[in-house]
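Figure 2 data, in text form.
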Amino acid sequence: MFDDTAVRARGPVPLLFAAIDIKDRLCVIVGGGSVADRKARKLVLCGARVTVIAPFITDGLLALQDDGAIAVKKRRYETGDLTGAFMTVIATDDEPVNMRVLKDAAALNILVNAAFSREHGNVIFTAAREMEGFIVSALSRELTPKESLRFLNDLCVNVNTK
């Protein structure tokens, strides 16, 4: 068995950077606020089948539902809602719900983006831009997603001016 003690002693767990094809895969978002809205739009752009589950839903998410881009279940999360999902995004500020979704996802071996805490998930959405045929992505252990996007935009502007 591989002993990872030396690797873990050096600091944070190393991350594997990879692009995942989620076209036509079910992604369940638990939460219906602005974070869920932002994540849903990213998933839809990537071709995922998106279902949002929350008792309260933003107007933006309802508009996506009206356009046929996502499905919405306007109710609280229930065990069983992740059945058949490839990935879940946890975008609530309700800790008991978050913990239940984490437990259910682990039991089903589903990828998890936990918007409330990087440490609880195993998928992090990075800031990304397409530029001259390249997809450039940025992730920081220190910066917020918004700050990472600002950094990436500044980087792309500097590259384009040289």
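Caption note: The two ends are 49 Å apart (CA to CA).
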